[in-house]
Amino acid sequence: MADSIYTIPINEIFEPKKGCPICAIRDTLEQRCVEYIMGAAMMEPDVRIETNRLGFCKDHLGMMLAQRNRLSLALTLQTHLDEIRKNVLNGKREMFHKGGKAKSISKINSTCYVCNKIDGALAELLDTMFRLYERDEDFKALYGEQEALCLPHYELVCSLAPEKLSKKFLTSFLEDSTRLVTDYINTLYEDVSHFCKMFDYRNTGPEADWKNAKDSIERTAWFLTSYHPK
Ligand SMILES: [Zn+2]
Ligand SMILES: [Zn+2]
Question: For residue 196, how far is its CA from the centre of ligand 2 (angstroms)?
Answer without folding.
Answer: 35
